[in-house]
Amino acid sequence: MNSGGHHVFAVGASEITFNQGIFTAAEVALFAKLHRSTVQRWFFSNHMGRAVLPPSGMDSKTLSFLDLVQALAVRAIRREQNVPLPKIREAVQRAEASYGLTHIFARPHQTALFMGEIFIYPEGHEAPIQLTGKRPHQLAIRQLVEPYQRDLAFDASGLARLFTAYRFADQAVIIDPAIRFGEPFVKSCGYSARTLYEAVLSEGGVPQAARAFAVDEAAVEVAFRYYDSLPLAA
To answer: In the chain, N or C: fewer CB atoms in 10 Å?
Structure first.
């Protein structure tokens, strides 16, 4: 059931509040535009190799919104900077062990890449600290901005809380872990993006789907374009 935007699950006489979304590996793969086996490896290990990121889902089979954000980050780091997975794993593990900082790729401008090494900005340090390579814990100078974070909004604690997954005209598809367990929805009307996408297919077009749901055509269009951009076979 839903309680004030927080998802509450009754377990006997107790309740567990979970406000970080619930995603399967297949859903993270879909929304991050990755192959499912890649997501399985990054978070759970598989025949392809050891895990890189510690999962933070409700159980051993699910992932959270922060896991989705970290998958987006690692995808960008891998594709744009060609950083190897062992180096990313090293950065994640050292950040937590040495600085008590988790989810380093889901924080605003917390990480930087310089000369092929990953740096972090711990609280109280004036300069970034090197996490990987032969000389970890060294200070650096240059600050780099992570492009993948431009579509993220952050909460007061400095963790990602909302992702703008797609934009078209004046419309946007949002992933908010506090709404529908993180299912993408169209901001202007509140409908699930998948619902509107499937309506286009079943109704025979964007205008027909818009009439059926009594929403602007642009709202349907952004939902359709979003799902059409995703690797639906992931």
So the answer is: N
Q: Tell me, what's the pLDDT at 104?
A: 85
Strands 6-11 and 14-18: antiparallel
Assign 80 to helix, strand or coil: helix
List, in sequence order, every residue forming a beta bridge with 187; answer none if it has no partner.
none
Determine the pLDDT at residue 83: 83
| HSE-up (13 A, CA, CB side) for residue 10 | 5
Q: Are 226 and 173 in contact (CB under 8 A)?
A: yes
First to last CA, the chain: 29
Q: Whose CA is closest to 152, among 40, 70, 55?
A: 70
Q: Is the pLDDT of residue 135 over 70?
A: no
Average pLDDT over residues 215-231: 96
The answer to whether 101 and 120 are in contact (CB under 8 A) is yes
CA-only gyration radius of the chain, Å: 19
Reduced to 3 states (helix: H, G, I; strand: E, B; else coil), residue 227 is helix
d(CA 74, CA 90): 13
Residues 6+ apart with CB under 8 A from 10: 1
pLDDT over 50 at 13, yes or no: no
Contacts 24+ apart (CB under 8 A), 111-117: 111/146, 112/140, 112/142, 112/143, 112/144, 112/146, 113/77, 113/81, 113/83, 113/144, 114/140, 114/142, 114/144, 116/83, 117/87
